[in-house]
Amino acid sequence: MPKLVIEGEEFDLPENSPIMETCEQSGVPFACTEGVCGTCVVEVTSGMENLSEFNQAEADFLGECHRERLACQCRILKGLVHLKL
Length: 85
Ligand code: FES
Prior knowledge:
Layout: E1 3-6, E2 9-12, E3 17-18, H1 20-25, E4 41-46, H2 56-62, E5 68-70, E6 75-76, E7 80-84
Parallel strand pairs: 1-7
Antiparallel strand pairs: 1-2, 3-6, 4-5, 4-7
The chain binds FE2/S2 (inorganic) cluster (FES).
């Protein structure tokens, strides 16, 4: 089962599930939830390969930055992902 670690706190999530709800419970702010506003940017400190691929909204907002993701747009696929708020 994939594991999301946010600032040291661990959460087990089903494969291929959105991370938004878990991030919200951990204090990540959300606004549009559609990948437009950038409110939900999180830094991925390890395990980026275990998240879904950048979608168009993330590519548009984050550009070439590949250490950050929009938490409202990505899903955890497998393994371990560490996030920093
Ligand atoms: S909440 Fe607006 S981009 Fe994620």
